[in-house]
Design brief:
Number of domains: 1
Helix content: 55-70%
Radius of gyration: 10 Å
Shape: elongated
Distance between the termini: 13 Å
Structural class: mainly alpha
Largest sheet: none
Number of helices: 3
Order of helices and strands: HHH
Length: 44
């Protein structure tokens, strides 16, 4: 999922890595149980 988020936001003039922080926070607000993105970021 994190790769999809980064790929879709790569063309924006905002850091695509920043979206890896914002998207989980947004999904938690919607009630989703989201793992922390740090593992995905360190794997990249």
């Amino acid at each position: 999922m994190w790769g999809l988020v980064q790929g879709l936001t790569e063309f924006l003039p905002i850091s695509s890595s920043g979206h890896l922080v914002l998207v989980p926070a947004f999904l938690r607000e919607l009630g989703w149980d989201v793992d922390e993105p740090q593992l995905a970021v360190s794997a990249v």
